[in-house]
Design goal:
Layout (H helix, E strand, L loop, with lengths): L14 E2 L1 E8 L10 H20 L10 E4 L7 E8 L13 E2 H16 L4 E6 L4 E6 L4 E5 H9 L2 H10 L9 E7 L5 H5 L5 E4 H8 L5 E16 L8 E5 L2 E7 L2 H8 L5 E2 L2 E13 L2 E15 L2 E5 L9
Parallel strand pairs: 1-5, 13-16
Antiparallel strand pairs: 2-4, 2-9, 3-4, 6-7, 7-8, 9-10, 11-12, 11-15, 12-13, 14-17, 15-16
């Protein structure tokens, strides 16, 4: 891997067209053909990854660069994509003069590190709007903050684009070498240089792994309630019936609990005004809810013909 310290940020003098060179190779370093359907996936993944990075400010403001493809060279399977601007880019996003291809290669390298679970040892927010990332292996990366936020999250959309880009690693190819090149640079001379990033079959397998997406939400509401089941043991939940459903709830209102400890009676059908904090966890389309009563106030006394709750006898 090359040093990723070259800046990709918000204060550049210029941004130019550039080339991203993708070289797929097998274990004998000799791969002369790719499955056409897989090649189509590579191109689609490259476009999607470029668009995703553009939306996060990798190339500055304005439209993302257009992705063009050069004819495939003979020998090992080499694909060259030209990132070119349809119009002048008024506010480039590179901390130094750099091609769009170079910026994308650096973002791809950061994406690979995230897929591999590489450890970050230090962050530094820079005046140009970038974040400098120091990795445990000594590499240093510099990308715009929104790009890092997106790649660090490694959401399903990003994984899908990366997996498409690396599709030939599923069977025919053993590795993908990614290099930056100038538009007028000969392909063969570029191939003599060390790749800026190398993806392996393990990276592809990690990219196609669909992580469980968990969404956590919280809401606080006040509602009328009855206590159907009471358990005074520490940490135990009480069953609470409300117009928004019936479920077990933890009790956080310490003043309410102290009043019960001092002998405040509970009666059947007592009505309470309770404030409930509902924590919702959404995973794979399923929602679980957890209730906590933060405040409870009796508003109407119930019947005197029995104590409330079957488990009130557990009171010490």
């Amino acid at each position: 891997m090359t040093d990723m310290g070259a800046a990709v940020g918000a204060e550049a003098d210029s941004i130019t067209d550039g080339v991203v060179q993708l070289r797929f190779a097998d274990d004998e370093n000799s791969l002369h053909a790719l499955n056409a359907a897989e090649l189509a996936q590579v191109l689609q993944g490259l476009v999607e990854f470029t668009d995703d990075m553009a939306k996060n400010g990798l190339f500055g403001d304005g439209m993302p660069p257009e992705v063009l493809v050069r004819p495939v060279k003979q020998g090992s399977f080499v694909l060259e994509a030209i990132l070119t601007w349809a119009q002048a880019n008024p506010e480039p996003a590179l901390g130094i003069a750099m091609s769009a291809g170079g910026a994308l290669v650096k973002a791809f390298d950061v994406a690979l590190k995230r897929l591999r679970g590489s450890k970050v040892t230090d962050f530094e927010h820079l005046p140009n709007g970038n974040v400098k990332i120091k990795w445990a292996d000594g590499d240093v990366s510099e990308v715009p903050v929104p790009v890092w936020t997106d790649l660090n999250a490694m959401k399903r959309k990003t994984r899908r684009a990366l997996s498409k880009l690396m599709t030939p690693l599923s069977d025919q190819a053993e590795r993908l070498e990614v290099r930056e090149a100038k538009v007028d640079e000969e392909s063969d001379s570029v191939l003599l240089s060390e790749p800026e990033a190398v993806a392996t079959r393990g990276d592809y397998r990690e990219a196609i792994t669909e992580p469980e997406e968990v969404v956590e939400e919280a809401e606080t509401f006040t509602v009328e309630a009855t206590l159907q089941s009471i358990d005074f043991r520490p940490g135990e939940k009480w069953r609470v019936a409300t117009a928004r459903g019936t479920r077990l709830a933890s009790i956080e209102d310490q003043e309410f609990l102290r009043g019960l400890d001092r002998g405040t009676p509970l009666h059947k059908n007592d009505l309470f005004e309770v404030t409930i904090r509902e924590a919702r966890t959404i995973a794979n389309g399923r929602t679980t809810k957890d209730w906590t009563i933060t405040s409870a106030r009796r508003t109407k006394r119930g019947n005197d013909d029995g104590d409330a709750g079957a488990s009130q006898s557990s009171q010490p």
